[in-house]
Inverse folding.
């Protein structure tokens, strides 16, 4: 109960400052962010069946529904409220990291190698170079205004959808093409992080534009079918303030009716800013030390020193999971919560307790809710409603995710890679393997399997892309 109250207080509009370092849990009775407005739609039934329900039972549910939910969820590690409010998965991660550390030290003693890691100095941790081409800075507001203007003309019947669609498609293509054409290959961490920031923001911009266009198209069709009867959400939502707020808000799905908090808690804002600074320094320190570990691993491979190869790989695995956890906290806990507080954005459920996931399928549904909601609403649901099977719609979601993941990796490095694309498509059989593992060995083993994939497979990806970058630079 104590952990449950801590999660509720952190996600509330004015959280307790002393508890802001805790992972925020999902809110009871929070309006779904997958909906276009507060009014239920016919499509909600389909969409609700695709979005994972909160592990915590809402207090407004009936006793019968709560008992049914608890019965169905008792077989999984993360589907019971007791586990959802715990950090069992983080304990498993800690034990796994301790085991990997002991193995690394033992192999290092056997191979006679020391801790060959070049830790950065304090001066190198502070970012100094973030210069980027000017067109990349001014293009986002331009394309948002263009999309807004086209939608406004559509609402006024001054342009047809057949003529507006090519304009929208051209805007989407330009958003994704401009970073590829405008970014330069960087040989220092500041430049790589700057490229990554631009690519991430442009991907988010493209996803927001898709959502904005699809939601308005849906409202436009409903308005025509209702003969201008009912609630007039559209076209009153087509304002510059609405699209500007959507552009900077911490969500990828457009909502004409947005709920706001009553005020901004300046203490929380200050705390999140300090959190961002601390996490940024820690993350940069690990990233700056990673190349020396990869270089040592590749050198050991060339020298055919098996024990050193394994020891270096285990070291890299510890670094990769540290980068993953620090990056997750930096983005989802610190940055998105800070943005939501500044904008008084009420929907602050950005993830479920993914660290307790017992299968890879649960992990992918829980760890990044903004992207998951967008994929469900703008890929899965439209494909299913168009007559596609659920399996084919799921394949479309995975294919889109695989392409965006490869784009997010290859574009900042300015290389043509494929490991991220192939790896993400490989998640389909991996999800099945993890499901079988959990059903035969239990939720704890399934959770360890999930952590093993994150720790070791990401390390393989680091080695692959490091080699590609070195080859491209030479």
């Amino acid at each position: 109960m104590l952990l449950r109250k801590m999660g509720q207080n952190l996600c509330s509009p004015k959280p307790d400052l002393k508890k802001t370092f805790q992972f925020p849990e999902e809110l009871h009775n929070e309006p779904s962010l997958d909906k276009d407005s507060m009014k239920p739609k016919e499509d909600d039934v389909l969409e609700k069946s695709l979005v994972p329900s909160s592990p915590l039972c809402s207090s407004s549910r009936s006793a019968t529904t709560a008992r049914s939910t608890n019965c169905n969820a008792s077989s999984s590690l993360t589907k019971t409220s007791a586990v959802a409010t715990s950090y069992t998965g983080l304990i498993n991660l800690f034990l796994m990291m301790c085991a990997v550390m002991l193995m690394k030290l033992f192999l290092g003693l056997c191979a006679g190698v020391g801790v060959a890691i070049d830790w950065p100095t304090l001066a190198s941790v502070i970012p100094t170079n973030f210069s980027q081409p000017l067109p990349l800075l001014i293009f986002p507001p331009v394309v948002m205004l263009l999309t807004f203007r086209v939608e406004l003309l559509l609402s006024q019947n001054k342009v047809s959808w057949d003529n507006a669609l090519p304009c929208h498609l051209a805007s989407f293509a330009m958003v994704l093409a401009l970073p590829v054409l405008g970014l330069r290959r960087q040989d220092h961490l500041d430049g790589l992080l700057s490229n990554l920031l631009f690519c991430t923001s442009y991907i988010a911009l493209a996803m927001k534009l898709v959502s904005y266009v699809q939601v308005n198209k849906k409202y436009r069709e409903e308005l025509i079918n209702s003969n201008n009867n009912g609630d007039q959400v559209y076209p009153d939502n087509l304002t510059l303030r609405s699209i500007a707020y959507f552009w900077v808000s911490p969500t990828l799905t457009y909502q004409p009716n947005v709920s706001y908090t009553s005020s901004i808690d300046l203490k929380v804002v200050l705390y999140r800013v300090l959190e961002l600074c601390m996490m940024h320094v820690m993350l940069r320190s690990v990233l700056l030390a990673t190349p020396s570990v990869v270089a040592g691993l590749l050198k050991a491979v060339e020298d055919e020193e098996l024990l050193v190869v394994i020891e270096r790989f285990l070291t890299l695995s510890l670094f990769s999971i540290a980068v993953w956890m620090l990056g997750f906290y930096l983005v989802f806990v610190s940055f998105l919560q800070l943005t939501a507080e500044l904008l008084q954005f009420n929907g602050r459920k950005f993830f479920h307790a993914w660290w307790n996931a017992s299968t890879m399928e649960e992990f992918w549904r829980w760890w990044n809710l903004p992207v998951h909601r967008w994929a469900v609403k703008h890929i899965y649901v439209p494909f299913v409603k168009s007559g596609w099977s659920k399996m084919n719609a799921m394949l479309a979601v995975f294919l889109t995710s695989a392409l965006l993941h490869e784009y997010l990796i290859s574009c900042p490095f300015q290389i043509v890679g494929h490991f991220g694309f192939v790896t993400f498509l490989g998640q389909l059989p991996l999800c099945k393997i993890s499901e079988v593992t959990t059903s035969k060995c239990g939720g704890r083993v399934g959770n360890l399997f999930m952590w093993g994939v994150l720790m070791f497979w990401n390390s393989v990806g680091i080695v692959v892309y490091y080699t590609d970058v070195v080859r491209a630079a030479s």
Remarks:
- The two ends are 58 Å apart (CA to CA).
- The chain has 18 helices and no strands.
